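Assemble and predict.
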Amino acid sequence: MEVKKINWPGLADGLATLALVIFSLSYASPWWHLTVGQQLGEANVSPLNFNFTLFGASMTPPIAWFLNISCQLSLIASAVAMLISSFASNKEYSKNLINFAYKKPLIVIIIFLIFLSIAIYIAGTLLQINVPLSGSTITTLDAGPTTIDVPITTEFTWIFWLAIAAAILCIAAKLYHKKLH
Amino acid sequence: MNIKWVLTAISVLIFVVPIGSALIVYQNDLAALVMPETPEFLTQPSPNMEYVGYQITDPLKPPLLKFRIYNSYNVNLRLDSIGAEVFCSDHGTFLGFANGTGVVNVPAKSSEVIGLTLTLTSEGEAHIYHNHLGGDFYIDLRSLALNVQGIKIRYREQISRIGPIRIPSS
């Protein structure tokens, strides 16, 4: 195998995407994290793993599990295809593999951001709970005879930025593949 | 078979199979697929409190009010602080403040007795001395506020006629 023929951005992307899947699944590392009060509620949100607990009760909709499976398979397939195409960039099928793989991390990130934005919008308009995309806020709720001030903190984790890096590497791999041929 | 079509089929199946499975599993209740089960506490989110009694450890000091606080949630709760304004139920006179004696941990699905120390103003002391010494009296708690692990719960309504409390005349 000629070293010059290896698609280096593709190789880096394949490894980054596999790392993304491993971190997200093995260590349940979210892309976006929400905390309610001091450990009274917690949402760990990523396209690969989602859970939301409030006062010890699970608030995770069942559809999340099915969407997570879909995104997990998508990213694993993308990583495998990208790794194969990187080492076999001179083969005829490598272009097909690159085309199959390069859009998937980007699509997963876009879907994640759309769902996150919709969830935050619904929380703000229907439930009157202001949730920042990143940062801290105190939202005030009227609950029966009481008024409740709830501190909410959210943040994007480094896993999210790893996903962004993987998506950029995907585009780079596609461009590098064109350059090789 | 053309590899392009195989990869396209994989792309489609990756999304269709999980989503299709979800729709089949939840075909009789599609709303349950997207809505999590609503926990009971969402309809009654504030912890319940019940007056238990009072304790006088030093005749020269105001009584310690005791309340039982119920935790209906599945997690242990840490009550960091509790405080309220105290009024005489019969005369509406402002007597002072009631504050928790410290941090209290209430186990999940359980209850705990908490103590509230009364701090009377000089007007409050004088009111009790002139109107209720040696007899029973009742108090109202207004502007009750609890701090539970960073969440502040403020009661808009007062808790009325807590008692009877008897201040010994000697």
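The longest strand of chain B covers residues 136-148.
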